[in-house]
Specification:
Blueprint (H helix, E strand, L loop, with lengths): L2 H26 L3 H25 L2 H7 L4 H4 L1 H13 L3 H8 L1 H20 L4 H15 L2 H13 L3 H29 L4 H4 L1 H15 L14 H18 L5 H24 L13 H31 L7 H15 L3 H8 L1 H16 L1 H8 L3 H28 L6 H31 L6 H25 L14
Helix pairs in contact: 2-9, 2-10, 2-12, 5-8, 5-13, 6-7, 6-21, 7-8, 7-9, 7-12, 9-21, 10-17, 10-20, 13-14, 13-21, 15-20, 15-21, 15-22, 16-20, 17-18, 18-20, 18-22, 19-22, 21-22
């Protein structure tokens, strides 16, 4: 080979390397349109979360102003949540029929209109009825936002969703502040009227910036059998889980499980024609991601139940102190979420999700010490902060893996499946842990017995966190540049 040929070959090699690096950089760059879509979609999760927080912290005031009992007024929240659960399985069918943009616009229009109706309510019964309608119209806001971000961002979902989750995390912080100001200076009706300007702004932005996708719609028949089994089954299970100590709650859980089992049997026969395509769960990556989501969400909600109960019952702290004592969890999540994209790009899906689950496990172990030796704020505060860091590191990478493992046309079904599993994880694990704790406490437990009971409950929570770690180990190391069935 002559020197000229050698130089030419070297030049071609460098050119090829440069081209490959350029292509990799181009793939790694996000289209600015993605941020516009994500910014508009953000309003869905933010408004739903803010509205739920404002109403939840105002129930006692609503009971007083409406001359009703707290047991009745709590259905303002419970009715909304049950309605939200009933409509959730329709997500995939609606998107296939009229397109994601149309569903999102109808959801926002309905949510804004029913917020106005809630503000016009004249009795506890009318307010509860309007909140049920609000749950039906707003139940798909958060799942639709998640789905549109997944469609636009692709394998970069962890990066985009990490930033988008940050404002949503602020809703529980600002919700009580907004509710307190409204109830101090204005009528309770403004708890719902504040949704109107936000809803109108979000509707306008969605009209302007969300891409039209009606040509992608593939109308199909509604699986009425699946709807009548799955939606009421989910609602009954969630209703009963919150009342598991009562006979009615246990019957509701049993009936809900039976109906969901009937849905699975029906869906296996119908395949693609089912309300939710359970064939998705045969994919190794998707099933691993869904299992991780279920366990992680369960551990998070079970911890949210157990830790405040421990601080109040075993440590003698006042309920009014829970706000500042539990704040480090939220702060830890706020630190982690914006870093998700950078971390997953550098270390991979499996490493970040497993690392987050492992950190959450390590941050749960000190509660075994606190249950035995008593409360120490020097141990509690950093422990809660680290737990928040870890818990936030599990969900987004596993969710990104789930979306990347399915084809573009399957994303609506994947969204429905993910949200159903997430919604089941919290009450399932919270109910199991609460039942275990009540069994350990017994009717006459006191002093050392209380400490021992909470110690065993925290040990069970550690086991749940360990299962989350094991499930995260089944996630892929990295995401392929082009999504395919996992």
């Amino acid at each position: 080979m002559t020197r000229r040929d050698s130089d030419s070959a070297a030049t071609r090699t460098e050119t090829g390397r440069g081209t490959a690096e350029g292509q990799a950089a181009a793939e790694d760059r996000l289209d600015p349109a993605v941020w516009k879509i994500a910014g508009v979609a953000l309003f869905g999760g933010l408004l739903a979360q803010l509205d739920a927080t404002i109403v939840n912290v105002s129930l006692s005031s609503l009971a007083t102003d409406l001359h009703s009992s707290l047991a009745t007024v709590q259905w303002v929240t419970s009715g909304y949540l049950l309605a939200l659960t009933l409509v959730l399985p329709l997500n995939g069918w609606l998107v296939d029929r009229i397109g994601a943009r149309a569903v999102y616009l109808w959801c926002f229009a309905g949510f804004t209109a029913t917020s106005a109706l809630c503000a016009l309510a004249w009795s506890p019964g009318s307010l509860i009825a309007f909140r049920v309608l609000q749950g039906v119209s707003g139940g798909l806001l958060a799942p639709m936002a998640q789905m549109m971000i997944a469609r636009a961002a692709g394998r970069h979902m962890a990066r985009v969703a990490g930033y988008m989750a940050f404002p949503v995390l602020l809703a529980p912080v600002f919700g009580p502040v907004i509710a307190g100001a409204i109830l101090q200076y204005a009528s309770w009706r403004w708890l719902f009227l504040v949704n109107l300007p936000v809803g109108l702004l979000a509707f306008t932005l969605a009209t302007l910036f969300l891409p039209r996708d009606t040509e992608e719609a593939q109308p199909r028949r509604l699986d009425w059998t699946g709807l009548l089994l799955l939606s009421p089954g989910l609602a009954l299970f969630l209703f009963g889980a919150g009342r598991i100590g009562q006979g009615l709650g246990q019957a509701a859980v049993a009936l809900g499980l039976a109906m969901m089992a009937g849905f699975v049997a029906s869906a296996r026969r119908k395949g693609d024609g089912a309300l939710v395509d359970i064939q998705l769960f045969r994919g190794r990556t998707f099933s691993a991601a869904v299992t991780t989501q279920f366990l992680s969400n369960g551990a998070q909600f079970a911890g949210q139940m157990l830790i405040p109960a421990f601080l109040i019952e075993a440590c003698g702290r006042a309920p009014g102190q829970m706000g500042w004592m539990l704040a480090p969890i939220g702060l830890g999540m706020m630190v982690t979420y914006p870093l998700m994209g950078r971390l997953t790009d550098r270390f991979g899906i499996r490493a970040v999700s497993t690392g987050g689950a492992g950190l959450a496990l390590l941050a749960t172990l000190p509660f075994l010490y606190l249950a035995r030796e008593g409360l120490s704020l020097y141990v509690l505060m950093p422990t809660l902060f680290l737990r928040g860091l870890g818990m936030a590191g599990v969900g987004l990478p596993s969710m990104t893996a789930a979306y990347a493992s399915v084809e573009q046309r399957q994303i609506p079904m994947a969204t429905t499946s993910l949200n159903i599993v997430q919604r089941l994880g919290g009450p399932t694990m919270t109910t199991l842990l609460a039942t275990f704790l009540a069994w350990q406490l017994g009717p006459h437990a006191g002093g050392a017995g209380v400490q021992r009971a909470y110690g065993l409950a925290f040990l069970a929570l550690c086991a749940l966190q360990a299962c989350t770690c094991l499930s995260a180990l089944r996630l892929p190391l990295q995401l392929a540049a082009k999504a395919k069935q996992g």
